[in-house]
Amino acid sequence: MTKTPTTKDGFLSLSRRGMLQGAGALGGAALMGSLGLGSARAAPKKGGTMRLAMGHGSTSDSYDPATWDQAFVQVFATARNGYLTEIAADGSLIGEVAESWDVSPDAKVWTFKLRKGVTFHSGKAVTAEDVIASLNHHRGEDTKSAAKPIVAAIKEMRSDGDDTVVITLDAGNSDFPFILSDYHLAILPSAGGKIDTKSGDGCGAYVVQSYEPGVRASMTRNPNYWKSDRAHFDGVEMLTVIDPAARQNALVTGEVDVIDRVDTNTAHLLKRAPGIKILATTGTQHYTFAMDTRVAPFKDNNVRMALKYAIDRQELVDKVLNGYGEIGNDHPISRSNRYHAADLEQHVYDPDKAKHYLKQAGLDSLEVSLSAADAAYSGAVDAAVLYAERAAKAGITINVVREPNDGYWSNVWMKKPWSAVYWGGRPTEDWMFTTAYASGVAWNDTFWENERFNKLLVEARSELDDAKRRAMYEEMQGLVANDGGAVIPMFASYVMAHNDKIMTPETVGPQWTLDGFRAIERWWFA
């Protein structure tokens, strides 16, 4: 077998994907604005309780990793749990619970060596059986996990002693170790082949003291955490504050130290507040208007194309994101991804072309409803209203339905025919497409089915010729853009804010919000 080191110069030179390319071009670092980089270089020190307010959370949230679907539970999960691998702030892949791994020449058989001395908060040692049970939780016919499609390629798993896991795939996949960093795939304690989804026990940096789903979580530092250069806060208080204005006010008044999802409409005002600093990172996060392609009128691709030409993308970037982002082209692969289709024709605002597609659908006009709420993303309602104003010139009436923030992800997303959605993106093309565009997967929120796309997705995953693989992914982007059910007008920066007591590393991960979901263990107080 071929040794696969966990450093840039080994494994990563073979299979860095997704945001690693573009993030590298951007330095992978945050856009600090008025931060002042000097503060980011201060040596970390221990102490204090960090208070974090997030624009996410639901009373239906739980400790079951199969159900995790938004940023509150994702940040909460990475604070208390360990994973086989971790995507570092600079986009490189490093081992976490896995100390190292080997791979067979055909990239089908992966052998992971577990780090010695890692224990759960309960004191139980992490073993290969825990890893196998944790991954199996997302496999099989009965699982409802959104991670099911990304582990579907696992054919067999076995332990080779307590510290070694051998995973055999049904086809080669050089991206496989990246997949194991997914926030669903937390390593949890097990018994009899079943993981503990009730207690909140984990092997991560922080130990749960209390948890009220959709409201708050309280944690203290794990005294036995093996990463000596992480987990600087003594404790962490996480709060769900859905309303953007209330969240920002809590930061300004000193009730919290950090907030996510800053409303870019008021970011310039927040930046002026004494002691407040804006932090923005650019990765693969994108905002969509997802159509249910199973139902009329969205089952007709001519209607879908009409709607794609009825939106002014740059206007949304300028007015909704206030410049914190860039235009999209109705597929989820950003310029930062390795196989981004740079030559794909850009969809632009063209009312006449939109009318042409309506005519192809046998329509002179169109009236549709679009559900939106700020729970989807800050400015989602404003984006929908701007969309409606521009679409009117194409003979399209968009009735914007202002949905309640509470329960948006449970009651609106994938329930209403057309809704505003945010996606964090994924580090690899295969991962993004497999999660949200493959036939029948849990998070295919447009319910899109395309035989050619699904065939290419499988073939590209195991294709070792880079030029051929690029051609496949570029064709897939074209299929999604020109046949898929998502209007994707913009890629948005993650915009966060914190007070001047908070210190961040010089490089802040752009893969997800809050330093790739890991601010709790990476940041510290001055």
TrEMBL record:
Domain Solute-binding protein family: 94-443
GO BP annotation list: peptide transport
A single cellular component GO annotation: outer membrane-bounded periplasmic space
Cellular location(s): Periplasm
InterPro entries reported in the protein's UniProt record: Peptide/Ni-bd, SBP_5, SBP_5_dom, TAT_signal
Chief subcellular location: periplasm
Keywords: Signal, Transport
One Gene Ontology term of the molecular function aspect: peptide transmembrane transporter activity
Family: Belongs to the bacterial solute-binding protein 5 family.
Protein's recorded name: ABC transporter substrate-binding protein
